[in-house]
TrEMBL record:
It comes from Oryza brachyantha (malo sina). Residues 193-349 form the NB-ARC domain. One of its GO terms (molecular function) is ADP binding. Pfam families: LRR_14, NB-ARC, Rx_N, WHD_DRP. Residues 554-909 form the Disease resistance R13L4/SHOC-2-like LRR domain. This is AAA+ ATPase domain-containing protein. GO terms for biological process: defense response to bacterium; innate immune response-activating signaling pathway; plant-type hypersensitive response. InterPro entries: Apaf_helical, Disease_R_plants, LRR_dom_sf, LRR_R13L4/SHOC2-like, NB-ARC, P-loop_NTPase, RX-like_CC, Rx_N.
Length: 915
């Protein structure tokens, strides 16, 4: 719906010249779909979040989803046909050209009539759906909600609250740490033991937050006057929560509280009055948003009696705002196998027999240390007697596929699904899309954002780029614990993983909603009749044959991970509505198949990875809707002239050293070019300057003369959206201009070219936070300019020689404020810079690089004034020993250590000798 409704609005534009009746029906259609969307959202908000939706509601949602897909297909089919350019004037005869233009106009009139017919048919389907919904789903003007048939999450949580402590595994160390964190008294805070102390346990669903909080609560309860343990839901009843809290704090006094008709304010007042003179401990379990915590916090008065509060949450930002955040880690491999063995063999010390040892380790790896997953899978395995080896392997292979079923798995998914149902609709869609990736796959941040863009999942916002908005989506999913940072960097980009249990959940939901179909060797016998999105994750011959038999006429997205895959359904007659094609995992596409791909007119996203592709055909211009093109892993050397007709392109990734076509500046929607662009003429700088939405620019000059200087400055001044700039190559005395640079520029890396003068335009960059630069000379004026950049926090500067009087260092003092600088790396042959009292007051990390002999010869000492850097925490010293006299390098180290001992912050020091 989110993608469809704006398209309906576009259809009403004058340029499409719809018939009056058709325009009226499009407007009616828009209103009906908006009402349906609102009704579906209302129904989803009525029932308990931890219960599956009513079957009739699910059927209605499925039908509305199919309707929206079919409507969008009809609109796209119309727009492609109506936007096709008319036949150009024929230079060989006026009459023939007139006839051809007339035929073109007649054809477009016919197309407009056809869209009117399509809309009337859709209108009829919507009316049928409305009547069916009214007939079966509504009684007395309200939606009939199904009664809960499955255990609620609150009832499932009870099993963790009442476990015997002797049966808990891996909690001893965590419990001890949390107790110390709650009860610790800081040495520098007299009387702090009487202050209210709050610790917030944060972690993924099923990680054991509730269990840990309950164990700590039981261990500490006797040390306090009173206590309470209350659990919060996604839509909490605050009156009920406060009444429950009062009953637990004093069961006798508040035994009849449920019969009272107190409102929220009265209950908060009563709690504050009761707790005023009590030393209490309270656990607030499963907080979902900070507003709920703020309401509860009003009741928990800080009475300076040493009270303690424990909260649990799945959201990192909530934990940080509550305070005292404690990130709960998964179980260690050793504790995981202990818990696994306890469930199956009723003993922590009894391990699986030899023939089950290997599969046990594999199962534990997929469980990833999550107690809920280990308990669930182990309970399933414990119930199976006879032929365990085959059954255990079948369970292992099915983990993450979303296909295995059973009460235990359904309950686990229900607990994990709370985080899913807490997401706004656009993030639910984005999360379900991650089921297209194989388990343990490293998901590149940039690739994921641009695939979401190609799918139409990223909403543009005023003044915001696709990349910014898509990045926020990833951050929100990270905050909710639905995806995890892998800690890996691929192509300078962060990567993420989906935990196998989350993958199992979203794959199950995706199958249920027929959102995406996976061919991975684990699929069920029956496939959906309409496959909208297909992820091909196998090279098995049977699966390839199965693909050939599938109806792909409704396919919108195709992702291939199978290396052996060679059969490509690229014909528009087979999949006429394909929008996303990711063949980055398939290396067998050739030039002819690439030409066939260019007939898929609806493509928004295209990623190719094949050494067999050596050229991009001129037919690429057919892809008028294309937004994202990644051909970085092909052997293409240059782009055809027709490439510049792709006016919708926002992201372009091409092979290194590939020549870009003239006229690239006409692609004025481009936001991202991750490559280094080789500049071989001033004209290229002019073209780049036209890309006003470009966020990042990396350029290489293979030569330099005066003809480049002004075009380069003009180019920068026009790139108003630029945030990152990298410059490499033979740069000389350029950039002396003081013309303002891009005001959104945050990072500049010019560390691969030596400048003879400091770039004057840098002084105008108010948002600049990181600067890496190599200068032939460094003067006092340069330091003053650098020190005045208000947001500069990271500075790397390498200097050939300083412009100053012999035997006098450039001293950085209060005149060069460097208000935000926290990291400084400075390197020169002789260390030309010193620090005065009060310099760089926020500097934490310093790196110095110099030649010991040169420095001693020129200045006679190694006194750089490091004792004056009041916030300094660490110093790295890189000393080049070549040409130094005996002991000069050691003298340098001794002198620096002496000044650091004088520094009140007592910074650490690492020394690296380069001899």
């Amino acid at each position: 719906m989110g993608a469809l409704l704006p398209k309906l609005a576009d259809l009403l534009k004058e340029e499409y010249q719809l018939q009056k009746r058709a325009r009226g029906e499009v407007m009616w259609l828009t209103r009906e779909l908006e009402s349906m969307r609102a009704a579906l959202l209302k129904v989803s908000d009525q029932g308990p979040i931890d219960q599956p939706p009513d079957a009739q509601v699910k059927l209605w949602a499925t039908n509305v989803r199919d309707l929206s897909y079919d409507i969008e297909d009809s609109i796209d089919r119309f727009m492609v046909r109506i936007d096709t350019p008319m036949v150009p004037d024929n230079p060989h005869g006026f009459f023939r050209g007139f006839v051809e233009r007339s035929l073109g106009l007649m054809s477009k009139a016919k197309i407009r009539r056809s869209i009117g017919v399509d809309i009337r048919q859709i209108k009829s389907r919507i009316n049928e759906e409305k009547e069916r919904h009214d007939r079966y789903s509504v009684v007395g003007g309200r939606v009939v909600a199904a009664k809960p048939v499955a255990p609620t999450v609150d009832s499932l949580r009870l099993s963790t609250l009442y476990k015997e402590s002797s049966k808990l595994v891996g909690l001893e160390e965590k419990t001890g740490y949390l107790v110390r964190k709650l009860m610790e008294v800081p040495d520098d805070n007299e009387g702090s033991s009487q202050q209210l102390n709050v610790v917030s346990v944060v972690g993924f669903g099923g990680l054991g937050k509730t269990t840990l909080a309950n164990v700590v609560y039981k261990e500490l309860r006797a040390k306090f006057d009173c206590g309470a343990f209350v659990s919060i839901s996604l839509s909490p009843n605050m009156v009920g929560i406060f009444k429950k809290m009062l009953r637990q704090l004093d069961e006798i006094r508040y035994q009849h509280i449920n019969g009272e008709t107190w409102d929220e304010v009265q209950l908060i007042d009563e709690l504050r009055k009761f707790l005023r003179n009590k030393r209490y401990i309270v656990v607030i379990d499963d907080i979902w948003n900070i507003s709920v915590w703020k309401t509860i916090k009003y009741a928990l008065v800080d009475n300076q009696l040493g009270s303690r509060i424990i909260t649990t949450t799945r959201a990192i930002d909530v934990a940080e705002q509550v305070g005292g955040a404690y990130q709960l880690e998964p179980l260690s491999p050793n504790d995981s196998i202990k818990l696994f063995s306890q469930i199956i063999f009723q003993s922590k010390d009894k391990f699986p027999p030899y023939h089950l040892s290997e599969v046990s380790q594999k199962i534990m790896k997929k469980c990833g240390g999550i107690p809920l997953a280990i308990i669930t899978i182990a309970s399933m395995l414990a119930s199976k007697k006879g032929n365990e080896h085959e059954y255990w392997y079948r369970v292992y292979r099915s983990m993450g596929s979303g296909l295995e079923d059973g009460p235990d798995l359904r309950n686990m998914r229900r607990i994990l699904s709370i985080s899913y149902y807490d997401l706004p609709p656009h993030l639910k869609t984005c999360l379900l899309y991650l089921s297209s990736y194989p388990e343990d796959y490293l998901i590149n941040r940039e690739t994921l954002i641009w695939k979401w863009v190609g799918e139409g999942f990223v909403d543009t916002k005023q003044g915001r780029s696709f990349h910014e908005v898509g990045g926020e989506y990833i951050d929100e999913l990270m905050n909710k614990g639905m995806i995890q940072s892998s800690g890996d960097i691929v192509n300078y980009q962060d990567c993420y993983r989906v935990h196998d249990m989350v993958l199992d959940l979203i794959t199950s939901l995706s199958n249920e909603e027929q959102f995406l179909t996976r061919l991975d060797g684990q699929q069920s016998l029956s496939l959906p009749k309409k496959i909208r999105r297909l992820s091909f994750q196998t090279s098995e011959e049977e699966d390839i044959k199965l693909l050939a038999a599938i109806n792909l006429s409704h396919l919108r997205s195709l992702t291939v991970f199978g290396e052996g895959f060679s059969l490509l359904p690229v014909s528009p007659s087979l999949c006429p509505f394909l929008r996303v094609m990711d063949l980055s995992g398939c290396g067998k596409v050739d030039n002819q198949q690439c030409k066939d791909i260019c007939k898929l007119f609806h493509l928004r996203y295209l990623s190719l990875s094949s050494a067999c592709i050596t050229e991009l055909p001129k037919e690429i211009a057919n892809l008028q809707f294309l937004q994202v093109l990644d051909i970085s892993s092909t052997e293409i050397k240059e782009l055809p002239p027709t490439f510049i007709q792709l006016k919708q392109l926002v992201y372009l990734h091409f092979p290194n050293m590939m020549r870009l076509p003239d006229g690239l500046g006409s692609l004025d929607r481009l936001q991202e070019i991750p490559n280094v662009i080789t500049i071989d003429s001033p004209t290229m700088l002019h073209d780049l300057g036209c890309l006003s939405k470009l966020r990042r620019l990396a350029i290489y000059f293979d030569r330099w003369d005066e003809s480049y200087e002004k075009p380069f400055i003009r180019c920068l001044s026009k790139l108003v959206s630029l945030e990152l700039l990298e410059v490499d190559g033979t740069l000389g005395s350029t950039c002396g201009s003081s013309s303002p640079g891009p005001q959104r520029l945050q990072s500049i890396d010019m560390s691969f070219c030596t400048l003879t003068a400091f770039p004057g335009w840098i002084s105008s960059l108010c948002s600049l936070s990181s600067l890496h630069i190599i200068l032939l000379t460094l003067g006092e004026e340069d330091l003053q300019v650098l020190g005045s950049i208000p947001s500069l926090s990271d500075l790397y500067i390498s200097v050939g020689k300083a412009t100053h009087d012999m035997n006098r260092r450039l001293v950085i003092g209060r005149g060069c404020p460097f208000l935000c600088l926290t990291q400084l790396s400075i390197s020169s042959r002789s260390m030309d810079v010193g620090f005065a009292q009060g310099a760089m007051q926020k500097l934490r990390d310093l790196s110095l690089g110099f030649e010991a002999g040169e420095t001693m010869d020129e200045f006679g000492d190694f006194n750089f004034g490091l004792e004056n850097l009041s916030s300094l925490e660490s110093v790295d010293v890189w000393i080049r020993c070549s040409g130094a006299k005996p002991r000069e390098a050691d003298d340098a180290v001794t002198a620096i250590q002496r000044t650091l001992h004088m520094n009140p912050n007592n910074p650490t020091m690492e020394v690296y000798m380069i001899c």
